[in-house]
Amino acid sequence: MARAAKSISRRAKSKSESPSSVPTWAHDTELVGLVFDLEPTSSTSLYSQYTIGLHAWFLDQVRQFNPHLSAYLHDGESEKPFNISALSGQFLPNGKQLQLEANQIYHWHVNALSQRVVQFLSQWLTQLPQTLELKDAPLRIKQVSIANPPTTYAQLLQLPIDKHSNISLSFISPTSFRRKGHHFPLPVPVNLFHSYLRRWNDFSGMPVEQQPFVDWIDEGVIIQQHRLESVKVAAGKRGSVTAFTGAISCGLSQTAVANSEFTQLFYTLARLAPYCGTGHKTTFGLGQTRLDWVEQESSVSTQFLTNMLGERIDELTALFTRSRKRTGGDRTDKIASTWATILGRREMGESLQVIAQDLDMPYDTVKTYAKLARRALKQDNLDKP
């Protein structure tokens, strides 16, 4: 009883300290995107895979406010009904890390794809904590605004369309797909719309037979223009991802437009893209998407960090895979990827404690793996002519 009273008191205090303007929406809303304005309490370094910390903080907030939803989000369903972005704003280089500047505002996006998550957000915003607790970099929550307007899947489907208009999609953060066990870093229309259709079928309550639609996309969608760049990023808890950023513009052939049912769905799924993101690992900041042609600024950003780390993890993974195959090691790929992730992050200046927490591994295990990885790296250097 005392614990419950303490919890209520804590939430009441948090509510009084929350941003004064709280976004609201209709009770039947199924989709919404929020942007948080965050201010560091002091200038501090940002560790390379901090999006894992953002992911963990958000899920812990769900656990505190709605344990049943938390259990659902951890059940491993095929599609997650939310996604998050990395931070955007003014960063300064600081060796192998980036520095958050005090008195600067940074932006963080959270998108909800199901009514259950939207209803959680509605409750949570009225009792929002004062600070987003990111490891060694607490961020004061200054304001929360609506980035993608509240709507429902039915409303998206009913919006009028111009059957002859092109659509533009911009991939704001590194984006990638999984194909035949490998990363596929190209925005081929089949992959894009298959990605969006999976989310639609999981959460809209109006599922569409997948194969006929995907075949129609393959036959009828034409890329008119593109501006793309390949990147290697560290994303999620282990390993690296080959991804892309940039924008494409595409439209429909005359033959494709003749199929009115699929034409409507094509434009509807394009409108869904900013909410659901594109490709995989969207709950760790990948695949953030805009329904527009966005020219990205060429400035120092967190992508610099993830590129550097992603390339190093990829290099180390190949090295450790060769090393373990020479010695007859089992579970080669998984162990090599784990060693590479630990050593790569350690080389970037991260502590073993932070790495262990992010990977959900015992500290002693991470410490042992780091030693084994260094030994394998040293041996590889000795073996070189």
Entry summary:
With 385 residues, this protein is an alpha+beta fold. Helices cover 45% and strands 23% of the residues.
The total of beta strands comes to 14
CATH class of the largest domain: Alpha Beta
Average pLDDT confidence is 85
Shape: globular
- Annotation field: number of helices: 13
Q: Write down the CATH topology of the largest domain.
A: Alpha-Beta Plaits
Radius of gyration computed on alpha carbons: 22 Å
Content-based structural category: alpha+beta
Distance between the termini: 70 Å
Low-confidence stretches: 1-18
How many discrete domains?
3
* SSE ordering: HEEHHEEEEHEEHEEEHHEEHHEHHHH
The amount of beta strand, in percent, is 15-25%
Side-by-side strand order of the widest sheet: 3-6-1-8-7
Helix content: 40-55%
Main sheet: strands, sense, barrel:
5 strands, antiparallel
Second-tier CATH architecture of the largest domain: 2-Layer Sandwich
What do these coordinates show?
It is a single chain. The protein is of the alpha+beta class. It has 3 domains: 12-151, Alpha-Beta Plaits; 154-290, Alpha-Beta Plaits (2-Layer Sandwich), CATH 3.30.70.1900; 302-377. The chain has helices at 2-17, 50-65, 67-73, 115-125, 153-158, 189-203, 210-220, 254-257, 260-276, 302-326, 332-347, 352-359, 363-383, and strands at 31-40, 44-46, 82-84, 91-94, 97-100, 106-112, 131-132, 139-151, 167-175, 177-179, 182-184, 221-234, 240-252, 289-290. α12 (352-359) crosses α13 (363-383). A hairpin with a 6-residue loop joins β7 (131-132) and β8. It has 13 helices and 14 strands. The strands form 4 sheets. The chain has a 5-stranded antiparallel beta sheet with strand order 3-6-1-8-7, with helices on both faces. The protein has a 4-stranded antiparallel beta sheet with strand order 12-13-9-14. The termini are far apart. It is globular.
